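Dear support,

I submitted the protein below through the web form. The confirmation email said the job was done, but the results page showed an empty box. After a refresh the structure appeared. I'm attaching both so you can tell me whether what I see now is the final result or a partial one.
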Amino acid sequence: MANGTHKTRILNRLLTAVKHNGHPDGTSRLVLEQVIFGILRDGTTTAQAERAFHALQTSFFDWNEIRVSMVREVADVLADLPDPEDRAARIISFLQDVFETTYSFDLESLHKKGLKMAEKQLQRFQGITPFALAYAMQTSLGGHALPVDRPMARVLRRLELINGEYDESARTSLEHLVPKAKGVQFCVALSAIAHDYCHENDPRCPACPVREACPTAKANNLAAKARNPASKAKSR
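What the results page shows now:
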């Protein structure tokens, strides 16, 4: 596990690795919409989630039509995403719970509550994932939350910013490490690294912009040189 100084160096490298304008994705969306977008975005890219969100809005009349639709009907619209049936079931479950709780699809009143109260209320809704919750808190409600999905957690482990699963302890530690003002930029960079370079199998370490600060990339490079002595000799 990296020490505090090394973690800071890795963090700084991450924040400069990917260009970003510093604003959350889809800041014009309502709270309910950001939760749904977060369910779509979990484990995918922003571009994939944007396409899926647009497909939902154009394939159904409104959120109520999605609420009363069959899981398969919604999943068919989300077919380009991984696990479309699970996402469809979560979205329908979330919309049903919101409707039964508020008799509407309006969660904008959460802006008037404190962050802790808003987070607790969102947590009660069925279908919401930890990523979708953190995404809505960060992008809509201004909370210091870091939405981290499985691919992003993989990068964190390889960078030795966390040890093991991205659990409550790891989340708290990371939120202390990353300033709130840099939270969006950090998550955007982390996701870009995960999908562009840090693949589960055959990661593209030589091309990765954070390779110089990544212990895993260095280990992979040494292993590659050990397997190919001729390449090692050529590099001298």
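Response: this is the final, complete result; the empty box was a page-load delay. The chain has two domains: 1-21+146-236, 31-139.
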